[in-house]
Amino acid sequence: MKIVAAKKILKANDQLAEENRHRFHAAGVFVINVLGSPGGGKTTLIEALHGRLPIKRGLAVIEGDLAGTIDADRLAARGIAAVQIATEGICHLDANMVSAASRELELEKYDWLFIENVGNLVCPAGFDLGEDLRLVLLSVPEGDDKVIKYPTVFQSSQAVIITKADLLPHFEFQVERVRQDLRKLNPNAPVFCTSAKTGEGIEEIATWLANAATGR
Amino acid sequence: MKIVAAKKILKANDQLAEENRHRFHAAGVFVINVLGSPGGGKTTLIEALHGRLPIKRGLAVIEGDLAGTIDADRLAARGIAAVQIATEGICHLDANMVSAASRELELEKYDWLFIENVGNLVCPAGFDLGEDLRLVLLSVPEGDDKVIKYPTVFQSSQAVIITKADLLPHFEFQVERVRQDLRKLNPNAPVFCTSAKTGEGIEEIATWLANAATGR
Question: What is residue B8's predicted lDDT score, i.e. its pLDDT?
Fold first, then answer.
């Protein structure tokens, strides 16, 4: 029987993540790890940003799912370069999976690489993939109490994106509550209020990301 | 450094789960493990069933969250006996946590014990808690493609509850797609289409659960 300690796995992951980061920087690609619940709007956000980000070379996506290729197929149908990782039941992406998947792309061809993590507000937060920054999505139907309930992911992200804001009139969701809870946990992270349906907030995220990529 | 193997942990969990199950049966309490994404409607479903299930003694809830007591407070405010487990960052409940939490309840006082797992469609699926049956929730805003994307949880549950069905007119969500995908994976599990807002489907689940409890 093979015995491995959790601490050792995480240390090995951090080393691989650093290797990924060096490779991404050398290729001049800015890498964004997108986290959120199942059905929170991760793929839709990436599609919306594809139309708004300044793209000189190209934009690619690494898709993480337990099984299937639904999201990668969906992106490919829109002409977006997509590589699917099938985690085969594992609840998060790790740096090793991303290393393998990123070797399926010619990184030099891209300005932007989005990594869409497995739909899960918990486990992905513990794994550095070598990204430049991490976005966490919170969709209006999920409720405004999630910052308190899932602190790790909200603490470790550089921005919070509220999605499906067009549904705000139909839900008891207070954007101000999210901002308040986040202020205690992660005061420097901006909160973007967005709807892919109406286009609200997408331009603001695109501008913020473009600034972040320039300032790297 | 302490070294533990994943396989060994799961085996120890299964043993503890069996102990829980014996204790629950001896006390005559029927135990339901409720799984679903963050904000999928788990607490709301338990509240709705509280008004519909045949209750001779009482109904209690063990609440699992990474942090905070939001849901336990909410249930307690409605007069429902609730014990909170704070997993402190862990992505699922395990049999040991449930063993400890259930000792805070006088089990003989209850017909029904609901265990509301951490909001997560992935990890909780791997951990037997000693429950009689497992329900998985899928809310309409999450999308109808989740059975394929998160097969383990849908395969290991005894019923699938579609929640927030009052939102069906606003989303491209095909209930039939969920049924079809489930037929391949878990053909014996019924699919209930429900809305806590309109009350749709709640009576049907209550009847189904009452039958399951009688037939145990």
Answer: 65
pLDDT over threshold 90, residue A2: no
Mutate to test the interface with B, among A91, A153, A171 (most CBs of B within 10 A): A91
Minimum Cα–Cα distance from A125: chain B residue: B89
Q: Are B178 and B160 in contact (CB under 8 A)?
A: yes
Q: Tell me, yes or no, whether A38 lies in a domain.
A: yes
Residue B55 within a domain: yes
- Cβ(B68)–Cβ(B89) below 8 Å: no
Residue pLDDT, tens place only, B121-145: 999 999 999 999 999 999 999 999 9
For residue B1, is it within any domain? Answer: no
| B87 within domain boundaries | yes
Confidence of residue B197 (pLDDT cuts 50, 70, 90): very high
Cα separation of A139 and A142, whole Å?
Answer: 6
Distance, in Å, from the CA atom of A135 to the CA atom of A116, rounded to the nearest integer, reads 10
Count the domains in chain B. 1
Interval B68-115: pLDDT, tens: 899 999 999 999 999 999 888 889 999 999 999 999 999 999 999 999
For residue B152, give the nearest of A89, A123, A139 by CB distance. A89
Cross-chain residue pair A141–B139, CB shorter than 8 Å: yes
ipTM score for this prediction:
0.77
Under an 8 A CB cutoff, do B119 and A37 touch? yes
Using CA atoms of A33, B143, B46, B207 in order, give the dihedral in degrees to the nearest 10: -150
Q: Among partner residues A5, A145, A167, which is closest to B3 by beta-carbon distance?
A: A5
Interface residue of A45, A63, A136, A149 to substitute, partner B, most B CBs within 10 Å: A149
This prediction has a pTM of 0.85
CATH number, position B56? 3.40.50.300
Range of the domain at B147: 6-214
